[in-house]
Amino acid sequence: MKFAILMLCLTIVHSSFLSNDIAKMKYYRSLIDHLHRENYAKGVLIISNVDYNCFDEMTYWHETSRKMSNRGIATDIVNFKVLKQNLPFYTNQIRHILFVIIIQNMDEVNLFAEINFNSNWSESPWVILFSGNNNQDVCEFCREPHRNVFNLKFNSDIVVVCCNSTDINEWWSATGDYTQVRKLAQWIDEKRGVEWLPKKSLYERRTSLEGRPLRIGIVKRSTDIWIDQGDFNGYLGKVLKALSQLMNFTISTVISEHSYGTWDPELSEWTGALGRLQRNEVDMVVSSFIMTADRFRVADFTIPTVYENSRLYFKKPGVTTVQWNAYFKAFSTDVWLVIIALILIVPLLLTIIQSTERLCFFPLVFEHYLSVWGIYCQQGLPELPEKTPLRIVYTSAFLSALIITMAYSASLTSFLAVSLSPLPFKTMDEFAKLGTYELIAIIDSADYVWLKLFCRSTVENKWKN
Question: Which site from 153, 221, 331, 408 is most exposed, i.e. has the minimal number of CB atoms within 10 Å?
Answer without folding.
Answer: 221
